[in-house]
Amino acid sequence: MSLPAILQGPLRLPVLAAPMFLASGPALVTAQCQAGVIGSFPALNARPATLLDEWLYEITESNAQFANASPDSVVAPFAVNLIVHRTNARLEEDLATVVKHEVPIVITSLGAREEVNEAVHSYGGIVLHDVIHDQFARKAIEKGADGLIAVAAGAGGHAGTQSPFALVQEIRQWFEGPLILSGAIAHGRSILAALAAGADLAYVGSAFLSTPEANVQPEYRHMILDSTASDVVYSNYFTGIHGNYLRGSIEATGLDADNLPTSDPSAMSFQEGRDNDAKAWRDIWGSGQGIGVLTESLSTRQLIDQLAKQYQEAINEMNGRISTLAEVR
């Protein structure tokens, strides 16, 4: 099965930048698109809801102006993430705005909704659905999603526990459509590994938290650069859904990161976490396990330049190994 036209390129890298709660906005999305990767943001980041309309105009106009001024540059499309769980009171309004602007790619999370898929399909858009295991993947496709985002172990924010290799291979046994892989991808070598595992694109999020375009506190940016995989804690305490968070941000609130209580998933929240003194994602900062390779704060374009260089080097290295093996045989 071939990829939908919108995912066939042109792209500078086979990357969809993950939508990050609070952190992703027009500045980051346009920088990602104009550097050649698909940018995205959660609709809930636009507050109040009426701001979503303004953001979509801003992103569309900025990308169009850049494309006109730089005809030789690759300008990628963008995506909007919709939380489709029943507790999201904004879903209907946000979906109407997405349809109005004919957003080319919609990422849905926390529940597969046929009516949402149909609304996006009405103008020719595509829907990619977040999943953490094969059962959810099958339900999403049955309800009309066009593609899947496999959120494997090590991904930032809400994430699963399955190995990316296991999750991708289970899905690929029955699904030939668009498949994006998420989970600790912050290096060009990891982007190539995602494709080798069977994915069509890599889902990169936490690496962009280190850029000045990300809407995060300076302390958050610095903690991303100073932390490694061992500084990432997996817990459902803050939102009712398991996710990965920076140990330093947890401990800064006075909590014991190694002994967090378990929360009731039925009380999940998507605004800024539970009604605790410390709120996710405002005070408790999400992060994937891939951050150990980040050493300095680069602009979004510089980071994508670096990823592209690493990706090409990884391809060259892999081709060299294949040639050597062929000679031995």
N-C termini distance: 33 Å
Strand and helix order: EHEHEHEHEHEEHEHEHEEHH
What percent of residues are in strands? Answer: 5-15%
Could you name the ranges where pLDDT drops below 50 across 5 or more consecutive residues? 271-276
Bin the helical content.
25-40%
Compute the number of strand runs.
Answer: 11
Report the oligomer. Answer: single chain
Commentary on this structure:
The longest helix has 29 residues, at 300-328. Helices cover 36% and strands 14% of the residues. Strand 4 (105-109), helix 4 (114-121) and strand 5 (126-131) form a beta-alpha-beta unit. The protein contains 10 helices and 11 strands. The protein has an 8-stranded parallel sheet. It has a 3-stranded antiparallel sheet with strand order 7-11-10. It is globular, with a radius of gyration of 19 Å. Helix 7 packs across helix 10. The chain is an alpha/beta fold.
In short:
The chain has helices at 26-34, 51-69, 91-101, 114-121, 134-142, 164-172, 188-197, 218-226, 247-252, 300-328, and strands spanning 15-17, 39-42, 78-83, 105-109, 126-131, 147-151, 157-158, 179-182, 201-204, 232-235, 243-246. With 329 residues, it is of the alpha/beta class.
